[in-house]
Design brief:
Blueprint lengths: L5 H16 L14 H35 L2 H32 L8 H30 L5 H28 L7 H32 L36 H15 L1 H20 L3 E2 L11 H12 L8 E6 L12 H12 L3 E2 L5 E2 L2 E5 L14 H11 L2 H7 L10 E8 L6 H19 L9 E5 L1 H35 L2 H30 L6 E2 L2 H31 L1 H28 L7 H36 L15
Helix pairs in contact: 2-3, 2-4, 2-17, 3-4, 3-6, 4-5, 4-6, 4-17, 5-6, 5-14, 5-16, 7-17, 8-15, 8-18, 14-15, 14-16, 15-16, 15-18, 16-17, 16-18, 17-18
Length: 658
């Protein structure tokens, strides 16, 4: 999928379009293009379309949500300017870092197209969340009749630590991807972490400066009057934005009050019922298959997809990507001399007769064609008559045959030859990978057999299937490594921030549960949606979903936990949990909806990967917002307090909230 091939493939597409549009184009003739270059071109083109669609949808979605939340252009401009500036500066820094890393030699930092999608989506989601918390606190401070300067300072003092702590959790979680072997994972994590650090800095510097410069004008045209229900509580702590000094209520505030009372009254029942409902999907998500089929990511109308379908109607599926076997024998004998032909011919004939038991238990002969220096067209020996033998003799002696199938470099002359094996299976399929393992073992036995003509010959495997197999091996290893490192990194940050190790462990476990529920739901829904064409989740989804959900998902737990612990110091343990849930319910829910919306914008892309990942991330964030943070965490805190009460739990409630 080299970018350098794109102009050539584009010109081929244009040429074919002109031929089809010509008056002299034969009726009924079908022309198609396939192969790795064509598939790579369509993948890169679809990625570019996905980036454009995602960026436009994300910006529009955030703009609409902010207008609905604030109904004040000034309050919309502040986060938008902050986020756009963050994205521009962050992408510039990433570009500079790629150039700087090239001079280091020990770390080759690169930026992939999918990285840009994640940067835009996560920065718009997280940046909006940061600004929402800051504006909410700033609004509360203004209700205390403070000046704009004083209100901004108090707001930063109130939310700065929580913002920094939650962002640090996400940044360190993403940064652990640097230990991956696969370049797309190894580079994406640090790049997104760096960009998120820029967004945090902008939210704590540029956004307060814009609020200070705008003063109360940012609340135009309604001013603070329509926001009176967002005033501070009587203890000076921030509210959800749904309650004023006199105790006015909104529908949402009433909901959070009701929910908090139910959680305190029946924590065990609610926790058990929630876990019971989530368990089937979580168990379903424990085991999942992933697919490396690039064609399945593309829309059916892409030229390479149409060309592949056309090829499969008339030829073996493996024609689009034969397995290339390079035989290297230091003893020589791999040249165009007639004395060495039987050796090559015998191996080709044996490969045609090779029996293989597929994953379904059927015994098949999976090799449909063997191309070699003797039979560069891959025709079976028994098919040749007199004319075929003459044609074969001419082709064998052609310089292109020698250049393709016999090494021409002086150090390898006569020592290296090539075989192209056309399989009956799609080169991207799991069955082809399984067959390649079988072929590798077959050639290994030939090499180790002293009676074989290929004794001590080294065989190397190249091609689409071999590349997919290597990709599967390295990404599977990376997934296991990342799924260990990210929770550990996040847990350590939580312990430092919250200073409650066991509660921190539960917070990590709760988000892990959300991950398995999300991946189980995604597998179920897309399996139903795509039916027979669904061969598994895209191979990139489990890693990116895990890292982002575990790292980003802890943000809301940190906001809730820090607020609960703050309230417990004033009100007692149980009442602190209730007040903390009520006071953070509205703002965290708003942030969760915005973050889920930005992730959902990825579904507007044309790649199936982006659609799956956008859906899964949006679902995971909503699950974290409305179930984990709302139910699982508060119920656990109440149960924990009952069995392990702290000094705060024995305090009298000084500031009861009705």
């Amino acid at each position: 999928m080299a970018v350098g091939n794109m102009p050539l493939v584009a010109e081929i597409y244009r040429t074919l379009d002109r031929l089809r549009a010509g008056d002299d184009f034969p009726q009924g003739l079908q022309l198609g293009v396939t192969g790795s270059a064509a598939i790579g071109y369509d993948m890169l083109a679809s990625s570019a379309e996905s980036i454009r669609n995602t960026e436009r949808t994300t910006i529009l979605l955030v703009l609409v949500i902010l207008l609905l939340v604030y109904r004040a252009p000034g309050l919309v401009i502040v986060p938008l300017v902050t986020i756009v500036a963050s994205v521009m500066v962050a992408m510039g820094l990433v570009a500079l870092f790629t150039q700087w890393s090239a001079t280091l030699g020990w770390f080759d930092f690169k930026v992939f197209k999918t990285t840009r999608i994640f940067v835009v989506v996560i920065l718009f989601g997280a940046g909006t969340d940061y600004c929402l918390f800051l504006i909410s606190r700033y609004r509360e401070e203004l209700h205390r009749r403070l000046t704009s300067a004083e209100a901004v300072a108090r707001a930063m003092g109130g939310v700065g630590d929580a913002l920094a702590a939650s962002a640090l959790t996400t940044i360190l979680g993403l940064a652990t991807m640097v230990f991956a072997d696969f370049g797309k994972f190894r580079n994406a994590g640090p790049a997104i972490a760096l960009c998120l650090l820029v967004a945090l800095a902008a939210s704590m510097t540029l956004a307060p400066a814009l609020l200070r410069a705008g003063g109360r004008i940012v609340f135009w045209p309604f001013g603070l009057a329509y926001l009176k229900t967002a005033g501070p509580a009587d203890d000076g702590s921030p509210t959800t934005g749904c309650r004023d000094l006199e105790g006015s209520r909104s529908i949402f505030h009433g909901f959070w009050q009701w929910l908090s009372r139910q959680i305190i009254a029946r924590p065990g029942l609610i926790l058990a019922a929630s876990l019971l409902l989530l368990s089937p999907l979580a168990c379903y998500g424990l085991r999942f298959d992933v697919t490396y089929d690039l064609l399945s990511e593309l829309r059916a109308d892409r030229p390479s997809v149409r060309g592949t379908r056309l090829l499969r109607r008339h030829f073996a599926a493996g024609e689009i990507g034969p397995v290339i076997v390079l035989a290297h024998d230091e003893q020589g004998g791999l040249d165009a001399e007639a004395d060495h032909w039987p050796r090559i011919q015998t191996l080709a004939e044996n490969l045609y007769k090779l029996d293989y038991r597929d994953s379904g238990g059927r015994l098949v002969r999976p090799i449909t064609s063997v191309r070699s220096p003797l039979e560069p067209l891959g025709e079976r020996p028994e098919k040749f008559g007199l004319s075929g033998a003459l044609r074969k003799g001419v082709i064998r002696g052609h310089h292109r045959t020698k250049n393709t199938y016999l090494a021409q470099a002086p150090e390898y002359l006569g020592r290296v030859t090539r075989f192209d094996l056309v399989l009956t299976y799609d080169p991207f399929s799991a069955e082809s990978i399984r067959l390649l393992d079988y072929l590798e073992e077959h050639f290994r036995r030939l090499s180790q057999n002293p009676r074989s003509e290929w004794h001590q010959t080294t065989f190397h495997f190249v091609g689409t299937t071999a590349g997919i197999r290597d990709l599967k091996a390295v990404t599977t290893s990376d997934r296991v490594l990342i799924q260990r490192l990210v929770p550990i990194a996040v847990l350590l940050v939580l312990i430092v921030i919250l200073r409650r190790p066991l509660i921190s462990v539960y917070l990590v476990l709760s988000v892990l549960l959300g991950y398995f529920v999300t991946i189980g739901s995604t597998k179920l829904i897309f399996g139903w949606l795509y039916a027979d064409t669904f061969h598994g989740l895209d191979w990139k989804l489990p890693v990116f979903l895990f890292v982002i959900l575990i790292a980003v998902g802890q943000d809301y737990n940190v906001y809730l936990a820090t607020r609960v612990f703050e309230e417990q110091k004033r009100r007692g343990s149980v009442e602190g949990i209730r007040v903390g849930l009520v006071r953070t319910g509205g703002i965290i829910t708003s942030c969760g909806v915005i973050m889920a919306g930005t992730f959902a914008s990825m579904t507007t892309g044309t790649l199936r990967t982006m659609q799956q990942l956008g859906f899964a991330l949006a679902l995971g964030v909503l699950l974290d917002t409305f179930v984990i943070r709302t139910v699982l965490v508060p119920t656990f805190l109440v149960i924990w307090d009952r069995y392990f009460p702290t000094g705060a739990s024995r305090r009298r409630c000084l500031f009861p909230v009705q």
